[in-house]
Amino acid sequence: MSLPTWLNLKINAPHFVYKPTSKLIPASVPSKLNLSYTQHFECPNSLIPPADQNVAAIVFGDGSNSRLYPLTKRRSESALPIAGNYRLIDAVVSNCINSNIRKVYALTQFNSASLNSHLSRAYSSARIGNEALVEVIAAYQSPEGKGWFQGTADAIRRCLWVLEEYPILEFLLLPGYHLYKMDFQELLEAHWNNRADITVAVLSRTRDNDTEFGTFQLNSENQVIAFKDNPEKRVQNSEKLKDISHDNFASMDIYVVNKDAMIKLLTEYHPLANDFRREVVPGAISLGMNVYAHKFSGYWDDIRSIEAYYRANMESIKNTNKAYCMYDKDSPLYTLPRHLPPTQITDAVITDSVIGDGCFLNRCKIRGTVVGMRTRVGDGATVEDSVIMGSDTYQGGRLEEDIHIPIGIGEGTQIRKAIIDKNVRIGKNVKILNRENVQECSNEENGYIITGGIVVILKGAIIPNGSII
């Protein structure tokens, strides 16, 4: 598909610049073809950014306290595969591209090798003239800071020397592990119309369980008058609350911040703050800065737990407006073009499923399942209501003598309500069914855990023939 010629990426650290090899793009492919998405639609002309675009997005990786373990044992949350062909970070970067955001900084730290590799390969020749679309700023040490990033505010503060190089007026702060589609231009227009110092994105409906990122209290003009981190901790200004109508709205942890306000907040008012949401935003409210909210009514999911990850994949199968749409030609989802062969299906019965590229499905039954790239399913196998991440590579036709179980799912195996991580070797006649309905179980030494009733097979695990889980 045709893509804008204004896209590119490099990894930027104080003493390290990553320049992707030209071998990633075949010589027969035009230079502007470097991103892909499922339907291969032509990119709309609106992707050409306006000349007066003065916004840079800052996309955060994630910390070490993940509830997605063991899926995050060797990768960050943002690098998790989803819906067969994609990674979570693709949804966030695609929102930026589709919203004409032409500068994206990715601040990465924990288990970032897989994420950095994906970003560099997926967006390697996306350019804006000679400017990079995405710059990966990995955590680093300097004379001023010798440790890791201590939080989102600390990460931005320590990277201001890089961020100030680009002539922008606003920063758009984005988590890299959320699944949603948003036109950021609408968020930016609300920010400009309100002459705000900070604009926060909130869910338009109030939900009692949305406490991960706190809630904002708004007045009738959508101005933020207080922030509540959780039901037990209330950050309020009692004087401002008097005689003002307001309501609570769940935070999406998405912010637009004026560049000058950002610099003052991080270097003058809160020079020791580590967390942007819990420290800097409440501080801006207490200082009397103009903090407004923009209400978002579309699909949004915070993929921070095994249950949420499983649910998002299951919803990608359904044709419903309540799920994330992978087939929107006006707002496509971009990812790394892998140039894989089509999936080969031999006498298989497949219903209500998503199948990635380059799979081999032989006389098996697959129902309600996301099947990732390069997955091999043997004869007589049955897979139901599961997420199969696939494989990073094809296994050779002749196996080594010490590898008696090949990568994939063996003949006669039964799998139900499970997440199978990458490069897993499942033998013949294995039963992964959790028939006793165990809710929690840690058995990493044998290659699996159970959480919320979902069986998770660890990356690269070997499940012997005839095993029962």
TrEMBL record:
Keywords: ATP-binding, Nucleotide-binding. Residues 57-316 form the Nucleotidyl transferase domain. GO terms for molecular function: ATP binding; glucose-1-phosphate adenylyltransferase activity. The keyword ATP-binding applies. Pfam families: LbH_GLGC, NTP_transferase. Belongs to the bacterial/plant glucose-1-phosphate adenylyltransferase family. This is Inactive glucose-1-phosphate adenylyltransferase small subunit 2, chloroplastic-like isoform X2. The gene is LOC107830523. Heterotetramer. GO terms for biological process: glycogen biosynthetic process. Coiled coil: none annotated. It comes from the Eukaryota. InterPro entries: ADP-Glc_PPase, ADP_Glu_pyroP_CS, NTP_transferase_dom, Nucleotide-diphossugar_trans, Trimer_LpxA-like_sf.
